[in-house]
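Q: Hi! First time asking for a complex rather than a single chain. Here are the components, and I think there are two in total. Is that enough to go on?
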Amino acid sequence: MSFIQVNNLKKHYDYYEKEVGLKSSLKNLFYRKKMIKEAVNDISFTIEEGEIVGFLGPNGAGKTTTLKMLSGILFPTEGSLSVGGYIPWERKKNFKMMFSIVMGNKGQLNWDLPANESLFLTKCIYEIEDDQYNRTVEELSELLDVKDLMKVQVRRLSLGERMKMELIAALLHNPKVIYLDEPTIGLDFMSQKKIREFFKFYNQQQKTTIILTSHYMADIEDLCSRSIIINNGKIAFDGELKSLSEQISTGKYVKLQMDKEIDESELRSYGNVVSFDGYNATIEVQKQLVNECIISILNNFPVVDFTIEDISIEEGISYFYRKGEVIHETD
Amino acid sequence: MRRIDKYIYSYKVGFQSATEYRMDFILSIFASIFPIFVQYFVWKAVFSATPVYNGYTFNSMMLYIIVATVVSRFVSAGFEYEISSDIKNGHLSRFITMPVSYLFFRVFRFLGQKIIHLVICALILICLSFIMKMLSFELVYHQLFLFIISIILALILNFIIFYIVSTISFWMAEIWGVVIALRLVINIASGGILPIAVFGESIASVLNVLPFKYTISFPLSILLDDIPLGEVMEGFALQCVWIAVFAILAKIAWDRGMKKYIAAGG
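A: Yes, that's all I need. Here is the structure of the assembled complex.
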């Protein structure tokens, strides 16, 4: 059995719609149309111990809802789920002792207290022994380079420093699995990099299972050997990001720059025209045909410059984002 | 590492916040002086027609009203909005993901606050008894020790009742109005404003069956009415029964609410 097992998980929310204006407010007093949002709609996956998996998806795709079900905050509408042999929403104490969730936009630290005070409360909550506590705080604050800031009121820390403190608080009890919901949100490039490096190291040292959601490609590319793309509550892709472009297309992008304006229709015979503005064009060409196409194009068009590229990961992902929408519209 | 340490921490937080907001508590008691003034004139008019009304003289009525005001402030919960905001803003999630019980967190915090409130209420009652003596009220305090036991049980009962009231937040986003209304109704039904006997026999017989009178009216009857020991013991037993019943209800309401919880934000 895998460490994390998710089968046909669904979460539906009820909500009500209201039109703008006083009149519809009054109308809503007597009759409200109940709407159902399928935040997570039938997803299944397994994760092994020690894996780092990235959750990708546009805003509102269901990533956070999934994490909340994995941590037992939400009850699923349907489906089953187990983490390390526990069912999260039974909220057993032993389960709580083995995981941690860090929300980038909502910390657990008290802003009015210095970080070490909040950490001490966390120590009390997780019933951590003194020597283990001292050792862990020493180690982690050294690694994250915040040793001098422990006595500073959290309010006065920068966003990046605060996130590092949040991470220390989340890792105090040495969890077996960590959920990171956008841990690098709003951080500058260097801080993002530092936090990524930290998790890479921590995962190697502790063999901690990590599930990460992020909108920064670098986070995912750097850390996660495996990514799950969620869109409209469904899994659109599950695998290595590198293989993503191969999966969606057997082609390459040929980008051309012309010194005279040409007609788009003339290019269509070579492949799918992805973008065109008269002088610049991107054509998706079958891999085995790239050579012929280039020769032919160079002979027939006023080309100043050209490049041949693989379809980028970002483009691959946005393909899956769009794909989800299409599925949603037709069903 | 002891398990109790995390709750001792929340006890201290409650203690600190009550120390911080002590003036708020004192002022809320003094604010209740104005309704007492109104009552003073109403009862003066009533007792000018009859010396005894439903078993009360003017003096015993005023004594009841004044002591009831202080006691009802003391046993009051006052955490409904805090729980509501924890539910509405998603802070409750932390208690779900961490090995710490929300109930115990609230209980210890409540106890921390009540220690301060106890000191304030005791001081006020002592001052009041001096003032009233000067105004030539005859004061008879019976069975102070039994009164203290009944007050502790009343405190627990009231805590649980309002813990249940707070769970409304799982189903309603804004509970401000509901809480105000319930506080008032429960306070009246508890005998926190007037002695229950005043409402007339039919209403009083209903209120006597309800649990609410065990939060204020019953402790006061021990202190002021010199009721027989057998009745006091019976009252203690009923307080315990109601505590058990409401504890079960609170568990049911809380479990249901938790299933409904949507962990807003983030």
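A: Residues 110 and 252 of chain A are 51 Å apart (CA to CA). Let me know if you'd like any chain examined more closely.
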